[in-house]
Amino acid sequence: MLYPQRLGKFTREHADTVAALLCGFLLFLGWFALHLGALGLAFLLLPAAYVIGGYESAREGLTTLFKEKELDVDLLMIVAAIGAASLGLWRREYHLIIDGAILILIFAISGALESYAMQRTERSIRSLMSLTPDTARVLLQGNEKKIPISQLKVGDQIVVKPGELIPTDGIILSGYSTLNQAAITGESLPVEKTVGAEVFAGTLNGYGALQIKVHKPAQSSLIQRVIRLVEQAKTQAPPSQEFIDRFEKGYAKVIVVAGILLATLPPFLWGWDWETTIYRALTFLVVASPCALMAAIMPTLLSGIANGARQGILFKNGAQLEKIGKVRAIAFDKTGTLTTGQLQVFQVITNSKYTSNDVLKSAASVESSSEHPIGKAIVQAASDLNWVSAIQVQAIPGQGIVGIAQEQQIIVGNVIFVQHYVTNLPEELREIVQSWEQEGKTVVWVAQGAEVMGVIAIADEVRVEAAATISRLKKLGVEQIVMLTGDEQQTARSVAKAVGIDRVYAQLLPEDKLNVILRLQQQYQTVAMVGDGINDAPALAQASVGIAMGVSGSDVALETADIVLMADSLEKIAVAMYLGRRSQLIVKQNIVVALSFIMLLLVGNFLGNINLPIGVIGHEGSTVLVTLSGLRLLK
Known about the structure:
The protein is about 55% helix and about 20% strand. By secondary structure, the protein is α+β, with helices and mostly antiparallel strands. The strands form four sheets. The chain has a seven-stranded mixed beta sheet with strand order 10-22-21-20-11-18-19, with helices on both faces. The chain has a six-stranded antiparallel beta sheet with strand order 2-1-3-9-4-7, with no helix packed on it. Strand 16 (about 440-450) and strand 17 form a beta hairpin. The longest helix is centred in the C-terminal third of the chain and has 36 residues, at about 570-605. The radius of gyration is 33 Å and the shape is elongated. The two termini are about 45 Å apart.
């Protein structure tokens, strides 16, 4: 029973592909039957190929005709195919039925390919929704009760325990904790929050229990606004798509009207007999069918997509391959994109009596009992050193941690915390710490007893390839490169300076990032956004081209983006731009060739110098030619 269920699910999800495969299979069997002289079998198989392969195009074409009063290429292709088949039956030249089926097959394959580039928005929204729990713990008369998020009201008090997701935006009434807001604001460090601070739905609570008051409806929370922004941005059709739609409808109108005129006027104007007139009109419909024009684009884009995939660049649809070549401005997220997103020990400066290893070992001995990301970074840096875990460890949230290691009291924390235990801070260390803080680094002081051992600088490491990537993009002609981040201004500017970015937007929420993208689009039209977090999703969706980091990126960022860098290699952005520009050039060449063939065939048909088989050969030959031309991008 399981196998039929899976087969049914596959058929439903890939209906266009199944239709194209069946059409091709029946077409082959029909051709083979004609070759063997089995006309009866051929006349069963070929109509089935027409119906299966052309049903969707006929349905869309007729729907557009009757509902929108417009003609499109779908209907034109069906008319041309049926015309070829009718002429084949009339003249008993049954190979023309094959030609009509081939036209339908080509269009069915194109429809199947395009269907895979759709349906991302719904998956993106589902992933966003999973960021918040379905229920919340509400305090009712001193007791906790779980209720659906949708039933929360302004003024409700909810309890969030350590390690849980915040269910909705609110204000802390009691408790103290660190919240990981990276998914929403993009901040690289967990934020310490206590009474009176605002918390956001979808952020992860740390070690402390919190009591929160709901101060706005659940549907107005930050994460819900992110969802609506993604929906809005993804439903806006790009101008290029609108232009293509208008062109197809206009082209179809011209060809259909011209075909009708060619089928009725020549007997009265030039004295043609009706058989010749209809023959020329059907030949006109076949040679004027825009298969070569359609093939001028899709094979090229698919070749570029395949080329990119081999190099770790996933283009989610062909339109984005074209757009990346037109990009004039690029916006980069900071955390997880220009940086690795992982806190690391940047540098250790010591008092003259101690070594760097002494400082790291002492700090790690007490931080090994902490779950704080800074503590984890210190423990990781000291992983190759010999140290023992401290005892009697006490952590003071937001300040530091103390403990006993090898019968010595070890103090690790910020400068105010350490000053409670030591009487003198070395002046030379103060100067170094000041310069570190100006560079946006987090500084940890380490003391043993009443004496300062040294200071440790913690920072989110900049990707080694980031600076080279920014430099190469500038050489490629990108006019504006900016950095967007939820971090504070000082940290943002230090990273931007390290990678060569001059323009920085800091302390941004997701909607702020989207607004920056909108402003850039007003000035530069085609804008790319590179990001990795949930907080980047609206900006990725709004950007002309959204680019996500494949390894470190969140599920929503990957689903919302148009291009995914599978290996997190920033330098691949420049490769993607080259592929995009190359694809544009090949598409333009193919369009010129396709239109030239159509014009030659139309002129030849009008002058009577070609018959239908030659017209079909010219039509199919031009299609094959531009298809092979598009495959050049595979190299």
